[in-house]
Amino acid sequence: MQHKLKRDNSTLTKRKTFKFSTRFQYLYNPFQNPSLQEINTCKEEFCQYLQLNKLPIELANVEYHQGYSCMYSLSSSQIPYVHYLKRNNGQLDNNFVGMAGMCGIGAKGSLCYGFIAANLLSGVHLTDKMYELTKAKLASEVGLD
């Protein structure tokens, strides 16, 4: 995504890359400066993307200006889940709905997830096939179907 044009007419572009990890050293301060490896990976992937789009950019032309690393919630299937939470006794609690595992797609799906969560909490049952399929998929990822 083009962010802005600098005075020398070169373009600043925002780019993100994901590194999957199950170890978090800074759980309570997840926004860290990216490692040199993360910076290089991002530059390489960005260059490859531009080249695939037939833009004559070489890796040497890609510069890093600033950035940060952060932590996302991600389910093992990479599909978010929205469903009732379980009580300590293993029974579903109809008063609490969990929404998690969205990793970057939360904003795109948040209206849908919120709609499903609101319906679960208010006891609304819709019969639309696509709605039911989506709701079932978001629950099945955590074995709650």
Describe the structure.
The chain is α+β, with helices and mostly antiparallel strands. The chain has two domains: 2-61, no CATH class; 81-140, no CATH class. The protein is built from three helices and four strands. The strands form two sheets. A two-stranded antiparallel sheet has the order 1-2. A hairpin with a 5-residue loop joins strand 1 (2-5) and strand 2 (11-13). It is elongated and about 60 Å long.
Structural class: alpha+beta
User: What is the makeup of the main sheet?
Assistant: 2 strands, antiparallel
The succession of helices and strands, N to C, reads: EEHEEHH
Number of helices: 3
Radius of gyration: 20 Å
Number of β-strand runs:
4
Average pLDDT figure: 75
Helix coverage percent of residues? 25-40%
**Overall number of domains:** 2
Spatial order of strands in the largest sheet: 1-2
Measured by DSSP, the beta-strand proportion falls in: 15-25%
Intertermini distance: 39 Å
Indicate the overall shape: elongated
Summarize the helices and strands and which ones pair or pack.
Blueprint: E1 2-5, E2 11-13, H1 36-52, E3 81-86, E4 92-100, H2 106-122, H3 129-140
Antiparallel strand pairs: 1-2, 3-4
Can you give me a brief rundown of this structure?
This protein has 145 residues and is an alpha+beta fold. It has helices at 36-52, 106-122, 129-140, and strands spanning 2-5, 11-13, 81-86, 92-100. 32% of the residues lie in helices and 15% in strands.
